[in-house]
Design a protein that fits this description.
The complex is a heterodimer of chains A (362) and B (650). By secondary structure, chain A is α+β, with helices and mostly antiparallel strands. In chain A, 33% of the residues lie in helices and 19% in strands. In chain A, strands 3-2-6-7-8-9-1-10 form an 8-stranded mixed β-sheet, sandwiched between helices. A 4-stranded antiparallel β-sheet of chain A has the order 5-4-12-11, with no helix packed on it. Chain B is globular, with a radius of gyration of 24 Å. The chains are: A alpha+beta (362), B alpha/beta (650).
Chain lengths: 362, 650
């Protein structure tokens, strides 16, 4: 393809286009499940892609950082052996939302700086993202607009698709995207002025449809300066159900634990699985001492990592893309917008309700 | 690989989850968004317990005890040995010297088939379920009052409550999807009244929080009923209901002004509670094992049901195990047939005899607890246990274990070689809920599909397969096809009339119907409190939320195990000071039946005079301290309110 970034893919050609791509790589796309459940899955044919889906609660980060991953298998004893497990095929994730693209870029930076995580890198090198922007926020909980993570992306995408009715506005954002486009590129036409205008108007319209907001600016200051009173964290912690869904389903969270599983044949498999800073065992030391001994301390940790200046400086952005999954996944109300709102209230004494004593939960 | 939709097997909430297998293990797992309970959310055990079901220490082959040791054997050997032993016992003495204990972890189809195996194939009346150890006291008490031994509401309706009374249940930790709805209700303005000897995590939501002395629930609940009746706070048509006069009369010993202080709760607090519950309708009355495992549990549940009826409220009994509801629906109780029909009623007996084409014993058999004691006395010659870790869930561990050891023949079907299986003569390797088809019935009475995600590990088989094979070896055919069994259940158990797998391929299913039952009151006569000065401490034995049942499924896995790596006991600081123990030091906890050693943690949420010993770390369990004292009517051991003494170990 030429240097031109913006193209048009007719919807009537989309199936053929992605069928051509399927010859080169496996396709992962939103699919319909039981009773309206929608999830990303391997699709056998582009016919199965549910282009009108809303949002997958189970973030597509799992295709790069699997929920449970066998890393390598080893044997000890007389003949020591060690062998990597994952065979990683070339993969296209089609229909991924802007927030999740932004989150994956965050994770790529995290796993590739300092010590490179080869398991992650192998997957991310072989994965190309065809994101589908949201013409309207797919759910009430969305607040990507507060996080510079959507509904449209300026950069960071491989290929960005906008639904213009009978056609997709097709933008190429990276070398990987350009290479993946080559395969069916003959089906693309140049975008014209009307297409550009239509896309712009959709973008402006989408911007005005958000129902949820998260007031990061002030909260980042308060959290960074460690000004949030401890009682507020403990009050928040007292409602935590310690399920770990907030970190499991956060597309930005990267923490994992490793475990060696003894196989029936006597070998071991080193396995890694998603872990959560919200568990006491996550930071408990061998001596039994826990630097984050209370629920409040652990909740504080989570928000400190998401929204303190120290991390903003290191990662280039705060650790939230506004996907809203912490809102829908939490058994209580420990989601980003609610906690930020609570922090903001705590900094204005006149907004505080009458002080009540708070139990500290361990 | 494709994702497979199934039902979580860790608690009675019954979340729907998608599981994607990879290399024989769980590759990914997430909740269903559209399911009415899970609504896109899972609890800790849902996220982390499910992968634990596939541990490498799973049983893979049948085991037979040879020369005192359990050794691998073939299915034929294990089944033949079991069948021939059962035949020998049956003809040598009588079928009633055989006992069978089932599990609330298994599917409805398995529970039903196990009842059929016991009653019609083997011909023994001794069939019971783990409800005997946990929640059996709610069955007859609720049947006799609200008319259904089950919840009267579904989980999504909880946030609409005006007020709720939560007694003896750490609902936020133990049943998180119900706890979550309690939180929603609280935010909608619902007034929460909670009662628990220790402070539980519902405290921040509670308008009133009572800390009654352990074992005294009946006393303050009687006062509460008196307060409601005396102030006429009940709904209008209540005095016309059956039993109202008897109830009022049974409380005549309580003065209208109420006793000043009932084991830590004042008359003013009782009046306040009555007012809150009456003024904020609808009221939901919830109660858990704290209520269900006392020596007068049946009476306490009746009192709670009376309160619900007086206020026009709903009862939500908090059963714990994933298929606790289904197991008792299927008749996994010694005195009831499937559908809660009493075996004593001749018409019921005849109907089931013609259904199963057999002759049934007309008297109820032995309860699970009685079966264990009969193992010791020699009345029982053979015991079959399917999926319940009886060695830890029965009271008086020392005597229970020696009884299980003593019985001539013990066969155990389980997923792991747990404490019970270690005592067996034959062990059948069962597979987990991830490896079989069937249905579970959740706490809302919703019958839900469990689907096979993996082939059974090793040579393990589903309990249904094992029951069918055993039945065949005994000369009778019982279907091993879950769908076939489900059809039979739909045909013969009235409340399951609508059950069909075909329908469950299209919808989430509906809770089985509780037809307009006319409630009636139960009188609540006064009871005498127990005094025991030799054992001054109250034992609070409770589950921690990272474990389930006896921990047989949950203490196997990394992240679950990591949260609480070691067992402990919690004391208030003042008690610890008085005993002269510091945190981390050890105490010996002794009851009249046994003793335990635990390291001490200080926790001021534990009331003075009580010690909290959590369950389920394997090894010795606080059940070891419980005696054979049971609720007289249901036979549920009085695990709660056990008295102990605590000594520092120097």
């Amino acid at each position: 393809m030429s240097d031109l970034r913006a193209w048009i893919l007719k919807k009537s050609d989309a199936t053929t286009f992605f069928a051509a791509l399927a010859g080169k790589m496996q396709l992962i796309a939103p699919k319909d499940y039981f009773q309206g459940d929608e999830m990303f899955s391997l699709v056998d044919s582009p016919h199965d892609i549910d282009w009108d889906y809303g949002h997958d609660i189970y973030p597509p980060k799992r295709f790069l950082l699997p929920h449970h991953e066998d890393m390598f298998r080893y044997r000890v004893g007389k003949s020591i052996s060690i062998k990597d497990v994952p065979e990683v095929p070339d993969t296209a994730i089609i229909g991924i939302r802007s927030c999740d693209v932004k989150a994956i870029r965050f994770q790529e930076r995290f796993f590739n700086t300092q010590i490179e995580d080869s398991y992650y890198k192998k997957r991310s090198d072989k994965t190309v993202l065809f994101s589908l922007v949201c013409n309207k926020p797919p759910k009430r909980e969305c607040f990507c607009i507060c996080c510079d993570a959507g509904p449209y992306l300026e950069d960071g995408f491989d290929v960005q698709l906008t639904d213009l009715g009978d056609r997709f506005f097709y933008e190429i954002g990276s070398q990987k995207g350009a290479e993946a486009t080559n395969i069916g590129g003959y089906m693309l036409a140049k975008a014209n002025a009307i297409d550009f205008a239509k896309r712009r108007s959709l973008e402006l319209q989408a911007d005005s449809l958000f129902k949820t907001v998260s007031y990061f600016a002030k909260a980042i200051n308060f959290i960074s300066a460690n000004e949030v009173p401890n009682e507020v964290w403990e009050e928040l912690g007292s409602t935590c159900f310690r399920c770990g869904a907030c970190t499991n389903l956060c597309p930005v969270c990267t923490c994992f634990t490793v475990d060696d599983r003894l196989e029936v044949d006597g070998s071991y498999t080193r396995k890694r699985s998603w872990d959560s800073c919200q568990y006491a065992g996550f930071t408990r030391e061998a001596s039994g001492h826990n630097p984050r001994p209370t629920f409040g301390a652990r909740v504080r940790r989570r928000f400190y990592h998401k929204a303190s200046y120290q991390y903003v400086q290191r990662d280039g952005t705060h650790g939230c893309v506004g996907c809203g999954r912490c809102i829908s996944a939490c058994l209580t109300r420990l989601d980003m917008p609610t906690v930020i709102k609570r922090i903001r209230r705590s900094m204005h004494k006149y907004l505080e309700p009458q002080a009540k004593s708070v139990e500290v939960w361990k | 690989m494709e994702k497979i939709l199934s039902t979580c097997g860790f608690c009675s909430c019954g979340c729907a989850l998608y599981v994607e297998p990879r290399n024989g293990q769980i590759g990914s797992l997430c909740p269903s968004v559209s399911h009415p309970v899970s609504t896109g959310r899972l609890c800790f055990k849902g996220w982390h317990g499910t992968p634990a079901m596939l541990g490498s220490d799973r049983l893979r082959t049948p085991l037979i005890r040879k020369e005192g040791k359990l050794q691998s054997a073939s299915w034929d050997e294990a089944l033949d040995l079991t069948a021939s032993t059962l035949k020998r016992v049956s003809s040598g003495t009588s079928p009633s010297s055989i006992g069978i204990i089932g599990s609330s972890k298994t599917t409805n189809e398995e529970c039903y088939s196990l009842v059929k195996l016991a009653r019609s194939v083997i011909g023994t009346p001794n069939i019971d379920g783990p409800c005997r150890f946990y929640e059996a006291s709610l069955i007859h008490s609720l049947l006799g009052t609200i008319g259904v031994p089950a919840s009267q509401i579904d989980i999504p309706s909880i946030p609409m409550a005006g007020s709720m009374l939560v007694v003896g249940a750490n609902v936020m930790d133990q049943l998180p999807h119900i706890g979550s709805r309690v939180q929603d209700a609280y935010e909608n303005g619902c007034k929460v009244i909670a009662a628990d000897p220790r402070i539980s995590r519902i405290k921040p939501q509670a308008t009133l929080y009572f800390q009654p002395m352990p074992g005294t629930d009946l006393f303050w609940l009687r006062s509460l009923i008196k307060a409601i009746i005396a102030k006429k706070l009940y709904v209008d048509d209540v005095p016309q209901l059956l039993g109202f006069e008897e109830l009022s009369a049974s409380l005549s010993d309580i003065p209208v002004s109420l006793p000043g202080n009932i084991y830590g709760i004042t008359a003013d607090e009782i009046r306040e509670a009555a007012k809150i519950l009456a003024e904020n309708r609808p009221a939901i009355i919830m109660f858990g094992l704290g209520v269900l495992q006392q020596h007068n549990s049946t009476q306490i549940v009746k009192a709670l049901a009376d309160i619900a009826i007086l206020l026009g409220g709903k009862v939500l009994p908090l059963r714990g195990q994933n298929n606790a509801q289904g197991a008792t629906d299927m008749g996994l109780t010694y005195d009831l047939m499937p559908g809660y029909e009493a075996i004593m009623v001749p018409e019921v007996k005849h109907r089931w005899e013609s259904t199963w084409n057999c002759s049934l014993p007309s008297a109820p058999g032995k309860s699970a607890v009685e079966m264990i004691r009969a193992c010791a006395s020699g009345d029982l010659k053979a015991l079959l246990i399917f999926g319940e870790n009886v060695a830890l869930s029965a009271p008086n561990t020392e005597e229970s274990k020696s009884a299980l050891d003593k019985v001539d023949f013990l066969a155990v079907s389980d997923v792991y070689l747990n404490e019970t299986a270690q005592l067996a003569d034959v062990v059948f390797p069962a597979c987990s809920f991830l490896e079989k088809d069937g249905t579970f019935t959740n706490i809302e009475r919703r019958v839900q599909r469990v689907r096979k995600v993996f082939e059974p590990i090793g040579d393990s088989r589903s309990d249904l397969d094992i029951i069918a094979a055993l039945s065949l070896a005994l000369g009778n055919e019982v279907s091993a096809d879950p769908e076939q069994v489900a059809k039979e259940i739909a045909q013969y158990v009235p409340m399951y009339a609508g059950l069909s797998y075909e329908m469950l391929e299209k919808t989430w299913g509906k809770p089985w119907s509780i037809e307009a039952q006319v409630p009636k009151f139960a009188p609540i006569p006064a009871a005498e409190p127990e005094q025991n000065d030799e054992y001054p401490f109250h034992l609070i034995a409770a589950r921690i939320n990272y474990h389930q049942q006896t921990g047989s499924m949950s203490r196997q896995f990394g992240i679950l195990k990591r949260e609480y790596p070691e067992s402990y006991a919690e004391l208030s600081k003042s008690d610890a000071d008085r005993l002269g123990v510091r945190p981390g030091k050890f105490v010996k906890i002794t009851s009249k039946t046994g003793s335990l050693v635990r390291s001490v943690l200080l926790n001021d949420l534990i009331p003075v005079g009580s010690i909290h010993v959590p369950h389920y770390f394997g090894g010795d369990s606080p059940n070891a301290l419980a005696s054979w004292d049971s609720d007289l009517i249901s036979g549920t051991p009085a695990y709660k309110a056990c008295k102990v003494k605590v000594e520092a170990i120097r």
